[in-house]
UniProtKB/TrEMBL annotation:
Protein localization: Cell membrane
Membrane topology: Multi-pass membrane protein
Name the record gives this protein: UPF0187-domain-containing protein
GO molecular function: chloride channel activity
Length: 397
């Protein structure tokens, strides 16, 4: 077996850096490039304040006690933001590792515990072990919103003739990948009677309801009308009617990981019917866990930090930094400029770190190396079915 201990990834993973080079001077994984614009603007703004106070004698100073209490609040906001982002990052790492571990265990069960009564059974085991690995890789692409099966890392893993039945957006589901059924959909809109138009009373009732609603809105209290108008202008939704969702128009579709799970379960059902494995419930438990992990990963990927919190935090940090020059210029003079630069670098950098790591499934240098995890798992799975004996090894001697 090839030893992966000395692989480049493991060397970089286990290497420990001190306070010297490269960590302190490292910029490639730093958020410095992200905050350059706001750092530049804050420095220019501070320079203008210093020039007005020192050169032109314009007194713009503010008492230092003004920012004392605000400093604590800003610090708490930044701490919460960064901790929450790292929790998402670390949970994503734990979940993906659980996914890889579950794939290892399930592959082991299939390889060792499933009886082989023919060469075809042996080939099927390899096929579905590869499909199990394809599930992990499909989950990686699913989290990155990369749809379809035309990815390099799927090569050799999907069965021959495997194709998505209908690809629109995330996935389509008209036929199965192991057989072709009818593409004619009895639930297609063309085959459904338009219920609303078939019942004039319903249509009339709906129109009357709309007219009544409009009349009530026109007759509402002036203060309430002004309040609702202001909320509309600033983008605040008042009710479900303000949410633009076309209910009932969703196309039938399914993610690739879920489609693979269905085919794995079909295979597991066949194993149970043919009594080729004892304690087959372990396989069904594994499938449930695969779906549960997928759902938790989707929860992290699809649940961003609320925009209201993110926007307010950026505004609060910016205002805090821009008020600081007015409280320091009378004591530090021109030294206020480098001091504000350092403060800005620290505060804006901490906020940028939260934004950088809150979604850990992408391609950024600070994201989780999902490609490496999948590559390591692929190497283990290949070693399993190429070199390790099965429970029916005598068939292959």
């Amino acid at each position: 077996m090839a030893d992966t201990k000395n692989s480049p990834r493991n060397q970089s993973f286990y290497q420990r850096h001190g306070w010297g080079k490269p960590d302190i001077l490292h910029c490639r994984s730093s958020v410095f490039a992200t905050i350059i614009p706001i750092l530049t603007f804050s420095t220019i703004f501070t320079s203008i304040i210093c020039a007005l106070y020192i050169v032109y004698g314009i007194d713009l100073t503010l008492p230092g006690s003004l920012v004392g209490t605000v400093s604590v609040v800003v610090g708490l906001l930044l701490a919460f933001r960064t901790n929450h982002a790292y929790d998402r990052y670390y949970e994503g790492r734990k979940l993906f590792q659980s996914l890889c571990t579950l794939a290892r265990n399930t592959a082991r069960i299939l390889w060792v515990d499933v009886d082989e009564r023919s060469k075809r059974d042996h080939e099927d085991k390899i096929t579905y072990i590869k499909l199990l690995l394809a599930y992990v890789i499909a989950t990686k692409h699913h989290l990155r919103l990369e749809f379809g099966t035309n990815h390099e890392d799927f090569e050799g893993l999907l069965p021959k003739g495997y194709q998505r039945t209908k690809f629109e957006g995330n996935a389509g589901q008209e036929n199965t990948i192991l057989g072709s059924g009818s593409t004619e959909d009895p639930n297609h809109p063309d085959n459904i009677v338009n219920i609303q138009n078939s019942d004039p009373e319903v249509t009339v009732h709906t129109d009357e309801a709309n007219e009544s609603t409009g009349l009530l809105r026109n007759q509402q209290h002036p203060v309430s009308y002004i309040k609702d108008t202001f909320r509309t202008l600033v983008g605040v939704r008042n009710s479900q009617h303000d949410v633009d969702v076309n209910w009932g128009t969703a196309e039938p579709q399914m993610s690739l990981p879920m489609e693979i799970v269905f085919h794995l379960e079909t295979y597991f059902n066949a194993l149970g019917r043919e009594k080729r494995i004892e304690l087959s419930y372990r396989l069904y438990v594994a499938l449930d866990q695969l779906i549960d992990i997928l759902g938790n990963l989707e929860r992290i990927s699809n649940t961003p930090i609320p925009a209201a919190y993110r926007i307010h935090l950026k505004q609060a940090v910016t205002l805090y930094v821009w008020v600081l020059p007015f409280t320091l210029v009378n004591m530090l003079g021109w030294f206020t400029i480098p001091v504000i630069f350092i403060v800005s670098f620290i505060l804006f950098g901490v906020e940028a770190i939260g934004s950088e790591i809150e979604d850990p499934f992408g391609y950024d240098r600070n994201d989780l190396p999902l490609d490496e995890y999948c590559k390591d798992l692929e190497a283990e799975v290949k070693y399993l079915y190429k070199y390790l004996p099965t429970g029916q090894s005598e068939l292959h001697h």
